[in-house]
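tmp note - ABC transporter ATP-binding protein
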Amino acid sequence: MSPEDVSTAVSQISVRDVEITYPNGAVAVEDISLDVRHGEFLAILGPSGCGKSTLLQAVAGLLTPSRGEISIGGKPVTGAKNAHLPSIGYVFQEHRLLPWRTVEQNVELVLSAGGVPKAEWAERTTRYLSMLQIEHLRKRWPMQLSGGQRQRASISRALALEPSVVLMDEPFGTLDEVTARAMRSELLDVWQRTNRTFVFVTHSIREALFLADRVAVFTRGPARLIETIDIDLPRPRDYDSRELAALEGQVVARVLDVWGE
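out:
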C-alpha cells in the first residue's frame, strides 16, 4: 500500500519526505514518507543499524530531521518540547528504570512530569501495572526484578500517561525467547484494550508479522522504505502457525537481496 493510499484513512502519524543526517554528514534516514492510522499497530522492520530507531526518535521529537516533516494528530513535531502534541509514550530497548526508585515510584515520576493530578496517581499506577501483570511487584526495586519484569514496568510507565501514540524501540530484543513470546501476546492484549496507536521497531521478521496490522520494510542504512505490507492473517495469531511461517518466507525472499547489500 502506498503512502497516498493510507492517507485516505485517518492518519495519526504522518512522515513526509524525511531525511536525517548525523553531524558527521552520514545519512541515517533517506526520503521516507509513511502514515500510521489511528489505532493501528505498525511494525517498522529492517536490519540492525539501518536507521529504524533514528526515525522513531524523530517521530518522538527527540531529534530533528534534516529535511521533511513529521506530524502527529495533524500538528507538526518540532522538537523535544512539543506541548501542543498529543502525549507520546516511548519504550526503549533497555528498561531505563531509575534504580533508586521502586516500580511504583518510577511510574509516579512520569505521571508527575506529565502533569497528571496526584489524586490520579494511585489508580493509574495500579491499572497499568495490573494490565502488565506486575501489580504485586509495585514496591520492589528494579534490581529485584527479572528482565521481563523490568520491561513490563517500563511499558506500564509509558502507558500510565495514557498517550495517544506508543513508540517502542525493540523492547523485547534483550529478552530470552520464552519471555519474549509471552510478552508479545501480552502486548497485543494491551494494544487491543487501550485502542492506542502503536509503532514497534524490530529486526525480527516473524515478530513483526505476528504483531502488526502493517509492516513497513526498510532497507539497510541509510534507511529507505521498500514497501508496506498489509498483514491479513486473522487475530489471535499463532506464532508457530504454517500461515505465519509461509508469510515469513515470502518476506525473506523479497528482502534478501536488499538486506544483503
